[in-house]
Prior knowledge:
Blueprint: H1 3-6, H2 21-26, H3 43-54, H4 58-64, H5 66-69, H6 71-78, H7 82-93, H8 96-109, H9 112-136, H10 140-169, H11 174-203, H12 209-220, H13 222-245, H14 266-279, H15 283-297, H16 301-308, H17 310-329, H18 332-352, H19 357-375, H20 379-382, H21 388-416, H22 419-446, H23 455-476
Helix pairs in contact: 3-10, 3-13, 4-11, 4-13, 7-10, 7-21, 8-9, 8-10, 8-21, 9-10, 9-12, 9-13, 10-11, 10-21, 11-12, 11-17, 11-19, 14-21, 14-22, 15-16, 15-21, 17-19, 18-19, 18-22
Amino acid sequence: MSDDEEHRPLLGEANGHVENKDEDDASEPTGCGSSIVCDPRRGVHRYFVLIFMCFLSFGSYFCYDNPAALEHEIKRDMNVDSTQYMLTYSLYSWPNVILCFFGGFLLDKVFGVRWGTIIFSIIVTIGQYIFAVGAFVNAYWLMLVGRFIFGVGGESLCVAQNTYAVNWFQGRALNLVFGLQLSFSRAGSTVNMNIMQPLYNAVDKSVHGHVCLGAALFIAGAFCIFSLICAFIVAFFDKRAERINKKNTGATGEVIQFRDIKDFSITLWILAIICVAYYVAIFPFISLGKMFFTNRFELDAATAGAVNSLVYIISAAASPVFGFCIDKTGKNIYWLLTGVVITIGCHALLAFSFVTPWVAMIIMGFAYSILASSLWPLVALVVPQHQIGTAYGIMQSVQNLGLAVITIVAGKIVDASGYLVLEVFFLACLFVALIAVVALYLVDTARGGMLNMSAGRRRKLDEIEVTREVPVDDNLQ
């Protein structure tokens, strides 16, 4: 990284605003704050804060898949069937059909990203502990209430995390940053898949049944508390950067209005369709995957759990790598197409062959990494800066509508027809995603091909745009 780049203002380049030297000198950090890591005007500081930013959703992703890691135990200890069990996922998703949108709007209009992140983290923590209490007292309805509350905060927290990423890194390796955030989130899911069963078994030596389940879920809630602490840390550094750089980084904007939504381009809605059609073939599949691998491939519980966690393990490692590659090459739509096609092949392999599931799940992990790393940064290219939170909220809302419906449908398909029909259903969803990617390519090409540009050409256009905007901002000072 060059010395010039190291000393660029934190957010000035992304917004086309350049601070004058007098302003920088007036806010010159001293003491520890003047070090390369603590100085918000230096590039190293951004990546230092990124560490805590990546952990914002670690706890929520860890606890999101607690039911998948303990599917057999929940069904046995709480005496529920597959359809009732899948309510732990659909009730997470249902509130976010609406609340994700409002969460993004509140980030843009009311709370600002700092307070919004803290509030959503608190809600996630409360929801997880109500979920645990429900198991303790053998009240499945209370567990579902906890998952509902958990969902109120969980997806809105992801919107806040994405908004932070765009505010700090737009124009600077944004695909890599989203890949890293995905990596940490998937690491949370991976750790969950591999430690919740041993944790349950360890607790089972002292207490049994629903009390054991509740204790294990209580311990899992510690990861939500850890993420809440990270929310306070990121808020501190964001506020500090605002003060030193004299930027309003704490709020993503003040001019967003509800009526602006009707002006969002068709490109954003196609991205939302791709998101929902693809993700419904991943998350509901993993939530039922442990029993699927046990029944279809006759794996023992431990091996089935390990296979089921492969998508998360692979994506945790591969997402930053693919994010870096996409930053260097551009051509995001081609990467999207690659991710969808490979995932179709993986589900077909699981449905129509008896090849060891390790192969399909490893490849699916790479495909998921490709799609997620190339999809989410595109939102920042199709909406203005002050509407970023709302746009991500819409994406998450549509995604959760699909997940809420499909998790219920998936549970009913398994109870009524078995896992083969379920796989055919997931393949149909992926073909919808494939059609949407082709539509995105056609629409983008008709509008100049911004989303599928090479990285070099996109950087040149950004430089031209910044050059045009700087005089305007200077005159406003």
